[in-house]
Amino acid sequence: xxxxFLNIFRIPDLRKRVLFTFGVLAVYxxxxxxxxxxxxxxQLELMFNQQSGSAxxxxxxxxxxxxxxxxxxxxxxMPYITASIIFQLLTVVYEPLARIQKEGELGRRKITQxxxxxxxxxxxxxxxxxxxxxxxxxxxxxxxxxFLLMTVITLTTGTAFIMWLxxxxxxxxxxxxxxLLIFAGIVAGLPHGVVELVxxxxxxxxxxxxxxxALGLVAGMIAVVAFxxxxxxxxxxxxxxxxxxxxxxxMMGGQSSHLPLKVNSGGVxxxxxxxxxxxxxxxxxxxxxxxxxxxxQPILQALQPGYPWYELLDMLGIIxxxxxxxxxxxxxxxxxxxxxxxxxxxxxxxxxxxxxxxxNDILTRITLVGALYLIVVQMVPTFLxxxxxxxxxxxxxxxxxNLPNFMIHGMNVNFYFGGTSLLIVVGVAMDTVNQxxxxxxxxxxxxxxxxxxRIRGRKTW
Length: 461
Fold this sequence. Notes:
This protein is mostly helical. The protein has a domain at 32-173. 66% of the residues lie in helices and 5% in strands. It contains 20 helices and 5 strands. Strand 2 and strand 3 form a beta hairpin. The longest helix has 33 residues, at 353-385. It is globular. The two termini are 33 Å apart.
């Protein structure tokens, strides 16, 4: 393993990509500590400590703690994620945009450019909302139009700069830029989570059994990580047989291979998309007239993390985006058409429409399994972190009042130990390792995994 790791720095191009990625991540973390002018940082920290399990905590997780400190990168990449969701949905329901996407590289560049513009617009709107909320909460040192303008310019510019950093990692680094930025933000907060867990053990925060509970949490995290790695590497292999053809005097084809279909093809994207959409009511719920509205305020209260309606919508959102993301990256009709053109076929399945339907049926089943896996990984730690407020269910809430306290109120463990953060960290780490491994194998080096092997070129011509 050490030898394979050192091979990364023996290849000039790969070494430059890895070092460039580290440099960009260092710039991102540096900007995460530059505060936005005019904000009372102490009072803001107290507010976040009081609402650590709410949607504020969720948004702070994806921003890597920058929202808690109200830095120039406070918005993180949430505006970019929202803009990407909007355009991906439009490419499905709006035919002119779908035709542009099918134009190849030129069409994708157009959509990417429009996504950037939408990101700036959403960033500006969210900046206005944040500046207004900070002013009304009394967290601004010198409120007024000057603070509003300065905050909008600062936060919007920070969002645009983060978007540019992510694109640079994708183009000039090791790839997967936006996910790596989220990864860096979460990992930077893990030491704080570990220190907080140690403090709970030292102060017996959970009673006489605090030490055993902490060991159980650590063991549970290890088990969840192992479960994530197992499912992320699981795939359904469809056997493929290529037809024999005579080209000149040589017999070509007749080989057997397989089409690998991952159980969780969407990776961490479904859970990020669902969480980003459900975090939208946070800004709306902080508006004064909404807080005083007797009709809207209870609805927004029910959409807070830890409440049954929020968790139910989160589950449905994960399932929807799992299927939606797979429908974008996997096209059964195109796969079947490529099989027909190359003279390949699935044994026992007729080429054409039957092959497309067969692949589509398999994708439908394994995507449901992948979506349920994402739900389990996210929901199980939720019971331990903040619990689910079953007692707040309308009409029947009293039935659940006798449930154990940790199921309703959780154990108040640091937010970084949640299933969402573990899923993102493990998933992005595995994707990054796979990309580096593919670069090594492409250059005739051994990969990290034992099964990767070495690709040998011809010794004689």
